[in-house]
Amino acid sequence: MTIKQFEKFLEVRGLKKYFEAGRPTLFSREKSLIHAVDGVDLNLRRSEIIALVGESGCGKSTLGLLLMGLESPTDGKVIFEDRDITHLNDDQRKDLRRKIQMVFQDPYESLNPTQTIEQILTEPLLVHHIGEHDQERSERVIKAMEDAGLKPADVYLQRYPHELSGGQRQRVVIAAALVLEPEIIIADEPVSMLDVSIRAEVINLLADLRIKREIAVIFITHDLGSVGFFADRVAVMYLGRIVEIGAMLEVLEKPQHPYTKALLSVIPAPNPRLRHERIILQGDPPNPINIPSGCRFHPRCPAAFDMCKLSDPPMMTLTKSHKAACLLISSGK
Length: 333
Known about the structure:
The protein is of the alpha/beta class. The protein has one domain (3-99, 182-330): 3-Layer(aba) Sandwich (Rossmann fold), CATH 3.40.50.300. The protein has helices at residues 60-68, 90-96, 107-110, 117-127, 134-147, 166-178, 196-213, 248-253, 258-265, 322-330; strands spanning 8-20, 33-45, 49-53, 75-80, 83-84, 100-103, 184-188, 216-221, 233-238, 241-247, 316-318. The protein has a seven-stranded mixed sheet, sandwiched between helices. Strands 2-1-4-5 form a four-stranded antiparallel sheet, with helices on one face. α5 (134-147) packs across α6 (166-178). The longest helix has 18 residues, at 196-213.
């Protein structure tokens, strides 16, 4: 791998997504809006893995759907390979989905229970008119399955989703993404429904695919501890915004934002001597309809003071030099 390969090729600029919460009433004509994603700036380099972390309801999954084009943004832009892909028609979006694929949280919900694994993995090739004949498509399916860890592929081709374990089903979903040979995989909580031992296997699989196929990954999760060893950068999201971003090792060792510190404090430490005091946040995240003034984290922040209610701080960024970051990525960790 060369440093040139890690030039940013996906950019998110001021991305917003607001949902209407109910209809205007007789006494008020104003619309209530849920600020699901509220001004996100992010960039992704080739072959890079970014972990997008935060509590449930912070907007992580909505951001993933916006990048896939499954939701239309309220404002902002998504730039892919110097092309604005924010508002594309169906034909343009279809071509784009060959390059950007998504792996969802529940593998069983992602798979058609009436189709065999071979039929499930062949369907994307038929939809995108890939392969001149059945033999060529079959070879691509088998290669995707084996790259996803389903070896030998012949054992699984004629099985149905209900005949597989949870980990095997998630590998099928990953294979369905790989069969189109994408450049980016957006993995939305891909291990949250799996046993701990299987989680490590799926995470290692994604790390290997980054090296083998040079695929960039946006790994959406609420568990910062599960991605610390394989992600290159981490973006911490709270109430629709990214509040801190930086190289994974730097954020783990020197977190700057109080919310990041709280997330790190509750990660179990295998060595009792390395355990530290947990920071337990009080209350639930604020209502995304009524965003707090100033810093949106101040109602729960143990270090808040009066100015926090008035001033909205910029995103905290921890960065290494571009060359050092690229070397970190190419090492494969």
